[in-house]
Amino acid sequence: MEARVSDSLVVDTFRMRLADIADVDLSQLHALSIAVGWPHRAEDWRFLLDIGRGFAALDEIDRVLGSAMWFPHGDDFATIGMVITSPRLQTNGAAQWLMRKLISGEFGKRRLRLNATRAAYRLYLSLGFSPRATVYQCQGDARPMPNAPHIPAGLTLRELSPADLDQMTALDAPAFAAARPLHLARLFEESVSYGLFRGQNLRAFSMCRRFGRGHVIGPVTALNEEEAIAVLHPHVTAHAGTFLRLDTHFKTGTFANFVQQCGLPVFDTVTTMTLGEHADYGPSEDGEAMVFTLASQSMG
Ligand SMILES: CC(C)(COP(=O)(O)OP(=O)(O)OC[C@H]1O[C@@H](n2cnc3c(N)ncnc32)[C@H](O)[C@@H]1OP(=O)(O)O)[C@@H](O)C(=O)NCCC(=O)NCCS
């Protein structure tokens, strides 16, 4: 990536300059995401600002016209998200400028991953990202499930406590292709979490937190589909009749069927894209844990 990207850009009649996103008024960022139809609440932005970094594009009178964020996971990996330009300025090169600024900056040699909307797909291709997998954004009013799914013999399901975070991180790291202890710890504070154990050993976990129009279930990490369903089910039951969302790489199979039965049809798709990373997504054949639902499209 080239080293020098200009600190300002003239788009239409606007001269835009960059600001640290941490210094920008939250209500303006919230207005920006509402303008492109995204469901984030101010609290959702606050959470992302707490764990991520990035830029906002401001005009001469400090109105926010764009944003781009990244979320470090240790020293060698990051996800990118919240890339938005104001609708009245789109297709004028603003997102390209923001992304080049981001990528030429602080990343160093980090592997990068993001989830691209259709509108952003070409932008990321032009920056060298490769498409890896489709993400199915499933959402709707959750249906009460009359029967609890079968829990395999010898396994116990219970609500998780902070003492379980080390095991959650260890189970999740190979599945996510990066250890994310800080993100899991912050998510845990916002979430109700369940785990499936054989004896003292964690085999699957799920988190569910407030987001957007209702609640989101993610991440869910598990060794197989049956156990992923076992940890998903308590959240669906808890939120039956209300808006629930999850983002998954699984399109078919037992887990995907269960999600449909829960009243969460596919609402949209995005594409997981990577730069410098060759992780696999979706079903694993070697008995390792898999990420069944994302924490969010921005956090991966
Ligand atoms: C995606 C988005 C950030 C692009 O912003 P932008 O300022 O219009 O992007 P740019 O003008 O820099 O264009 C970058 C590339 O994307 C293409 N592009 C822009 N909008 C597009 C659209 N709606 N559909 C298809 N391609 C589009 C441009 O043609 C350009 O491609 P090129 O370099 O081959 O010419 C903007 O449309 C947006 O905020 N959308 C809603 C939120 C969103 O989807 N964010 C992406 C999250 S991953």
TrEMBL record:
One of its GO terms (molecular function) is acyltransferase activity. Gene3D superfamilies: 3.40.630.30, 3.40.630.90. Its EC number is 2.3.1.-. The keyword Coiled coil does not apply. It comes from the Bacteria. Keywords: Acyltransferase, Transferase. This is GNAT family N-acetyltransferase. It comes from Ciceribacter thiooxidans.
